Fold:
Amino acid sequence: MKQQLYLWRKIKDKGMSQLIGLSALMMVGILFLILGYIFIKGVSALNWDFFTQLPKPVGEAGGGMANAIVGSFILLGLACSFSLPLGILAGIYLSEFGRNQLGTTVRFAADLLTGLPSIVVGIFIYTLIVLPMKGFSAIAGGIALGIIMVPVITRTTEEMMKIIPLTIREAALALGIREWRTILSVVLPAALPGIITGIMLAIARAAGETAPLLFTALGNRFWHSGLDQPIAALPLQIFTYAISPYEDWHAQAWAGALVLIILVLGLSIATRFLTRGRYYFMR
Amino acid sequence: MIKMLPRNAGDALFRGLTILFALLILGILITAIYHLVTGSVPALVKFGWGFLTGTTWDPVAEEFGALPLIYGTVVSAFLALIIAIPFSLGTAIYLSEYAPLWLRNPVSFLVELLAVIPSVIYGLWGVFVLAPWLRTTLQPWLGKYFGFLPLFQGPAYGVGLLAGGIILAIMILPIITAISRDVLQAVPQEQREAMLALGATKWEMISQGVLPYAHSGIFGAVILGLGRALGETMAITMVIGNRPEIVISLFGLAQTMASSIANEFTEAVSDIYLASLIELGLILMVVTLLLNALARLLIWRVGRPSLETV
Amino acid sequence: MADLIGGKRITIKELNAWYHSLQALTNVNLLIEPNKVTAIIGPSGCGKSTLIRCLNRLHEIIPGARVSGQVLLGSQDIYAPEVDPVEVRRRVGMVFQKPNPFPTMSVFDNVAAGIKLNSRRSRNEIATIVEKSLRQAALWDEVKDKLHNSGAALSGGQQQRLCIARALAIEPEVILMDEPCSALDPMATLKIEELIQELKENYTIVIVTHNMQQAARVSDWTAFFLLGELIEYGHARQIFSNPSDKRTEAYITGRFG
Structure:
């Protein structure tokens, strides 16, 4: 009886450890399955034209997504231009002055913004900007992406500045340096590597966002013709091509996916090694 | 962190500036809520609660009942949870309790990479790899052996609720895994040692000592995953089939709230159509905000266990 | 599983322990008498906690930790390849530095946790063992009306006695105590010390302490460790009144530590 129980416990222990190991293996397996497919399908469809040509009309072979690639960079630039100052300054507030009711509220608001579905951000920017401007535009798309980036940047800035030891601030203040200068020229630079990490991760996330662009940037088959005009973006183009019925376009979608994934994973992996280097250096 | 009153204009200005930007964040959230509420007023007025219970979504007849969309959203999200929870929890336990030290960081990193793959790419993979496999392999197999269940009946299209659930599951794996792992790692070592010292096997230590201690945090991780699954748009739009009907079978085509918005927003010509779509967005926002608030509360509680348990 | 006879007496032979490349114990030989209290003393970092964690094979759960040598429980080497550490830990109970009841379990379930793992018993049998263990740990009168409250709601001293009851419930042959009073106030400490005296009737007790008065009060035998080595071992009275090694004398007279 007792031996039986002991045996059963051993079997359960072994079995569970196998299952647990297996689930981890499968999770990593799924990643490589997806990446592998994109790589194989993408490489075969990718060529120089993809980076230099405009999309060709249906039926004509060739063409590329040059306008979408440029468009994505313009959108990300617009997004950064307003989300960086907003995110960083709000983060500074939370870290340096935010130990109060307002700080808690803002922190919570930032966390909730992170969880807001990106399609909802799209609707919001549509009613806030597209309707008054009477048209889809690069600006609307850029702001939508920026709103997705803001909470990430704010919270990383806060966390990174909080880990800078109090003694560093005190040392600067004791030298008679003003508080605002202390924060900007002593604390912020010390926290900068971590903040840059957060920014890069935010950019990586925004670069792949499609839903908030559907009815803000809209997409465009041509080169962009002004920030108040609709603009193409790589993920939008992939979406349009993927749900189209044309073989040529499917191939282009895979090529686009490969370019997008290299951009996004490249940013994430670079961030990873950048921070590892930094932490090592700091230790 | 620095408790001091501003003593000069520079300090006051700087502090004022940061407060302004912090308030802007709050402003964005409040404005978003305001715009979605005002944008959906026509639909709110016309349909009232009937919007939630109506079963017909017919833009041509301008009749908008969101129940089929709510159904599609909820079923695909819960299907995703059912698939994702065992894998996520298994991987989180592996990372926190089993993996050798040198393997922990690389595996955690790979799992995090799953989180940065853009939604539209999951969708692409879903359309061209997952859906064909479901149509030719999994669905016939399920139909053959489990076809007596209403869940696995009907023609195999490949795309549909099942494909949506699987794609969503893959997409929420990393977030549930990463947070559960953090929560498990926050369980004090003494809890594990106390269990082991009683003669527990490793699995008994985990199931009776570690998981109960971490359960509310893990629940928080799952809720956060649910929030993601409900609001996820692109991938599910590409594989769910886009038919606003209530179907019992997981093989059936369906539609979610988010995919309705994505597909129809630019085609919504009438005010009431647009308002109905915005109201879908409002429902999504309210639900995900509530779930996020709940999840953060739960995770926060484990991060700082009350003093009496120390 | 080989039948384990004898029990209670612990023979440590040529024991070495490492954390990665750091050697925490060097060549320890020690005979721990049954039904006696043996105190392990020494300055922090001398390896005293490592030593008792080697006696129930808890040392090896730390990544990078290694052990060599023999620890005989009765006549059975617990480091023999065929021995399952789970079985060893059932026979050797342990009480930790910080009281660590399971916070999600009630007082009753805390004590019952080990019993439920190791045997299938009826509810009545379990209830009987729980009561017996709580009585042995001198906690029964204080908690008998709140058996189903959370174990985490008790006071620090009560929590520690709850942990002792939890260890007793699996009917071990040896009880290891790793500085069991260091987180407690003087009154609670006194109660635990009285309890130790009662428990040695039935168990072999090994207690690690950094408190020399406590070692002098509770122990029959005392071992002094320094930098991972056993410096001196003898009757407590002899160690504290007439140590033979200069380093022991220096430590117990408070010249370092």
